[in-house]
Structure formats: structure tokens, C-alpha cells
Amino acid sequence: MRKLLRSVVVVVLLLALFPATFAAAQSDRQNSNSDLVPGQLLIAFRPGTSLQQQDVVINRIGASLIFRIPQIDVAVVRVSPGQEAAALQQLRRERTVQHAAQDVRIRSAQIPGPNDPLWSQQWYLDFVQARQAWNVIGSGPGRGTIIAVIDDGIDVNHPDLQGKIVDFLIAPGVGALDPNNNNDGRHGTHVAGTAAAATNNGIGVAGICPTCRILAIRAYSDVLPQGSVGTAAWGITEAADRGARVINMSFGFQTPNDFPSIKPIGDRALAYAARRGVVLVAAAGNDSLSFPRGFPQSNPLVINVAALTPSGSKADFSRWGRWVAIGAPGVQILAPVRGGGYEALQGTSMASPIVAGIVGLIFESGICSTADCARTRLLTSATVHPGLNRYWPGGRIVNACRAVTNEWWRCAN
Q1: pLDDT category, 21, cuts 50, 70, 90?
Q2: Which domain holds residue 99?
Q3: What digits encode the pLDDT tens for the residues 236-285?
Q4: Do both 140 and 231 map to the same domain?
Q5: Residues 255 and 399 grouped into a single domain
Q6: What is the reported pTM?
Q7: Where are the alpha helices (DSSP H) in 205-281?
Q8: Which residues form the catalytic set?
């Protein structure tokens, strides 16, 4: 009895001394739970499991099929909200199931920026020596390298994206762009335009890769809100199947420790694309933390991009760490937005498509024909900033010109 009383006293004292710690832990759990998609589960079946066998398992747990990602043996299903834990427990006893998890919402990696007229300059083109890269490659029609932009959509009618869009796909379970809200699709339009807006057309801005084409995939919407790891995985596999050489992912969810059970399912989609020769590029994330977001940033196949300021320093909001591969401009990035206009935005969401566009330039130049070569080329041609090496390996900064030629003297002016 005395031992029990002493234990109770210790717990009470801990609560009194460290109330914020316990409150913060509870808050983290609540925030994590709010990112879960009610009633939506991802089931990763063992390779070779037939559709009939999959349907038996889905029916056995009382679920309905939303859509499949057959390339990676994944089914996205719906159960009654509140029944997720019981269904997952049952799924983990199924011999044909390798992984199962409740689906998790994804969000963009953009942060707000001021609407300042002085931002109406694409300072980042000279920062990464894009014009020198264009001179090296020449002004021909190019190879038409496809950059897949998995995001919240695209304005197919934007004047600066005409002739650039290969296709616009919408993931199952994600609605069409809201016709009354230009914020829906604003992020994806900006990302796509940064990477590959029409260039030398006498209007608007220039894209990093003028001869690249865009495969736009709407996998989420911050406005509705809709979209999840499941819809992103669908988008990744579709992009790989439709000929994308580069996939840009300016989204993510919280941390690897928040939803560890879902990471292997997302990793399947990334591995599928990598096996098909796709270079995977992602925004590192904001809020200045030193660990990666859970998906897709925590996968080693992904080139994670931090954000830089015009002075070349790490943007104060950018995530960082040894898992980051390279830095690129992410502040005051002027690009198209939905509705036909242009805005200067900031975030690692804006830095990532600059790198994706430069990977596109590598393929366009012909200096590389494989994903492994392009990835290596991107990293070994980067310039080095000694002040950044405490944030990511080598303090690498992307350089478009050095990436497309071995004659680096051509990048001197």
C-alpha cells in the first residue's frame, strides 16, 4: 500500500512540475489524428495476390473498394468511421496482406509571402545560371522531357502554360478544381510554371526548363480538403507509367514517427517509379525542423530540396538535415498562378520545381540518359557554400549550367 501511495505521489508531482510536457504530448497526438482520413485504409498485398483474393480480404473486413493501384498491389478501401482500428487489426492477421494503415492527408509545402511589386523579378534564374544553361543546350525544340507535377492541380488555360501540358489527371477520390476559388490549383500552377512555363513567347515569365513538358496530376486539395498518401501513390505510379522522367512532389505529411505504418506503402510507389527510371524530387518542408516529413521526404530515393534566400543563405523557414540533398531558391519566386496571373511565393514548394526543372535540363542536354546519371550529375555539379554545410552535406547549391556541361568555363559569365 505504501509503494502504491509513493507511486501516486510521484505521478502527481511530475504532472505538477511538467504540465506543458504532458499537454504537448497530448496535443501532438491530437494533431496527428487530425491528419488521418476517416474511414479510409490502404492495404498493401503481397506481390502475386490475385484481384479475387484481394476482394475476399476486402469483403471479409466489411470494406468497400475506392480504387486500386495495381502496379504496386495496393487497394484503397473505405470502412465505417470508427471501425478503422478493428479493420486494421483483422487485416494484419491476413496472410496475403503485407502492410495496412489508415490513410493520411498530404498538404502543400508553401508558406505565405508579401504581395510586393519589387518581387516581380525572376532573380532565381541568374542565381542558378539558367540562362547560361540554355545557351549551352541551344534553342532547338528539345527532347520534350516530361516533368510530372503531383500537386493540387493546374490552370490549363493559363497563357504561359499553353502547349506545355501533356495531360491533366485527377486522382480517384479527389474532386475537380473549385470553379469559384482560384486558390484551388494555385499552388500546382505555380510549381508547374516554375519548372517549365513557356519561354520566349513574349508574355509572363520563363520556366527553368523551356523545352520540358508538364504532366499535371491533382492528388490533393488544401482547399476542399482532399487527398492523401493513397492518392499521391496513385499519382506517382501513373506518372511513371506515362513517361515522366522527373516527378516533383511539393507536399508531405508530418513526421516519420507520426504514421510509421503507412510509410512502407508510400515507399512502394516511390520504388516503382525509381525502377522505371524516374528521378524523384521533393520539397524538404518548412518550419525549420531538422528531420524529414514522413512521405515522401524520408525515403532515400528522393532528392530533398531546401530553400535559399537571394543572398544564398538557408531560408529561415526551410527544413534541413543530412537527409537534404541540395539547396535551391525558395523565396520571392515569381511564377504563374490560377486565373491567368502571376505571384511571388515562398516555401520549399517553390525550391523543389527549380531542381526538377534542372533535372529536366540535364535530360534535354543529352549529357545523361538515365536517372542514376542525372541524379549524380545534379549533385556533383552543384556549387558549394561553406556556410551551408552545417545544414546539409557539402552545403550544395544547384547550378543549372554546370549540370548540363563538362566545360564549366562556359558558366563563367
Answers
A1: very low
A2: 36-103
A3: 999 999 999 999 999 987 666 667 888 899 999 999 999 999 999 999 99
A4: yes
A5: yes
A6: 0.86
A7: 229-241, 263-275
A8: 151, 187, 349
